[in-house]
Amino acid sequence: MTAVQPFPPDAETLAYSASRVPDMRWTPGAVGCLDGPGNLGPEHAGALSLVYSSFVDPAKAQRAYRRFADAQHAASQAEGFLRWFTIIDGAHGYGLGLWRDSADAAAFARSPFHRDVVREQRADCLEYSQFAGIWSAHAVGRRNFYCPVCATVTAAPAASCGHCGEPLDDGFGG
Fold first, then answer.
1. Reduced to 3 states, what is the DSSP secondary structure of residue 28?
2. pTM score, whole prediction
3. Fewer Cβ atoms within 10 A, N terminus or C terminus of the chain?
4. How far does CA 79 lie from the centroid of its chain?
């Protein structure tokens, strides 16, 4: 069976990217990921939430990260939560949430727990700069597999190629 695995850009690809998109940057950082119930793929997301933070005080940054962990735990229990990514790009931190729909994301944002966390963050000025928003999908595409054996397209979720039967590694529990 073909196995899904990470393939970061190599030096040649990074050089090519720099020649095509001079303003593109690759920064050292960290990525944290949290799977929601059912480990569903991106084709189930009808809404995205985006949170941005920057910090000037190391102690406050660590306190904020701990509160973010509390919020991520609460989000993982919320109706409609699918997945969360935390991305650190140098001095800029982003959280990207995938939700079944914007009503679920907004309900979490209005929850007593989330309101308390936000109130604490603002009262203690944990962040230097902060932004949050929720977007609804205008169109949700279909996720496909492209069989490495016969090149047939099979719609996800699927355990095997619809044409030749080659086992497929869905990565999302399909």
1. coil
2. 0.86
3. N
4. 17
